[in-house]
C-alpha cells in the first residue's frame, strides 16, 4: 500500500480529535477526584449533554440536611437524565480534612448515591476550574450548599443560595427547565 494512503486516515484522525473536544462545554473541562475512591470523574465524558445540578457541600454545615433533599431530587429525576454532582469544600471552614469522614457523612449518614468529589476549592483564584466557570456564568458560592442548575449545553440557567431547599418550587422549576433543554 502506498504511503499516501496511510497518511489520509492519520490526517482524518487529526482533524476529528479537535472537533470532539469542541463539543465539550468549557464548564466540563477536566476531571475531579471521586470522593473516597481511586478514580477520577472525567467531567465531559460523564456530564456532556446532560442536565446537571452542581452543589458545594460541607459535612459540618447547618445546611447538611439538604443532602436528603438533593438525594430525593436525584432519585426523582435521574431516569430523565438528571445528574447531581456534590463538591465538598472547606472554603467556609465546615468540611473535614479527612475524605473518609466526609464520605461517611454523605454516604452513611445521608444515603447519598449521586456523585461526590474529594474536597475542592470553590471560591477565588484557587477555585477548581468547574467553579471558576460557574462563577463566570453566574456567581461564586456565597456559602455551603450553593446550588447551580446547568442545562444540557453546559450553561448555568439558575443558581440558588443555601437558603433554597432542593424541594423548593423555584429550584424544581429550574431543574425541569434544564431537563427540557435540547442537547
TrEMBL record:
User: What superkingdom heads the lineage?
Assistant: Bacteria
Q: Active-site residues? A: 61
Q: Which residues form the Thioredoxin domain?
A: 11-180
Q: Which UniProt keywords apply?
A: Oxidoreductase, Peroxidase, Signal
Q: Name one GO molecular function term.
A: peroxidase activity
Q: Specify the signal sequence span.
A: 1-21
| InterPro entries hit by this protein | Glutathione_peroxidase (IPR000889), GPX_AS (IPR029759), Thioredoxin-like_sf (IPR036249), Thioredoxin_domain (IPR013766)
| Family per record | Belongs to the glutathione peroxidase family.
The name this protein goes by in its record: Glutathione peroxidase
Q: Which GO terms describe its biological process?
A: cellular response to oxidative stress
